Amino acid sequence: MDEKQLAKLVKKTVAKANKPKTPTGKTYDPTLDATRRPHSDKDDEAAELFQQMKKREF
After folding, report:
1. In whole angstroms, how far apart are CA 58 and each of 51, 53, 55?
2. How do the residues of the chain divide into helix, strand and coil, expressed in percent and rounded to 5?
3. What is the average pLDDT score of the chain?
């Protein structure tokens, strides 16, 4: 892999890592919003971890 390809890959990876996470979609039922816990960064980390775990074979 030459340096141009490596630089392009690093740039792509950094842009993907810095992309802001989108919050859950808007709900139209106020009772759902009342019972839902507040969004946290741990939720995003857990979701990413489980997505990676699904891709692996054990």
Report:
1. 14, 9, 10
2. 65, 0, 35
3. 80
Exposure string over 26-52, b if 16+ CB within 10 A, otherwise e: eeeeeeeeeeeeeeeeeeeeeeeeeee
Tell me what pLDDT residue 12 has.
Answer: 84
Q: For residue 16, which of 24, 26, 8 has the smallest C-alpha distance?
A: 8
The residue type of 31 is: T
**21 pLDDT exceeds 70?**
no
| pLDDT score of 36 | 80
What pTM value is reported for the model? 0.36
Instruction: Confirm if 39 and 23 have CB atoms less than 8 A apart.
Output: yes
For residues 39 and 16, the answer to whether their CB atoms sit within 8 Å is: no
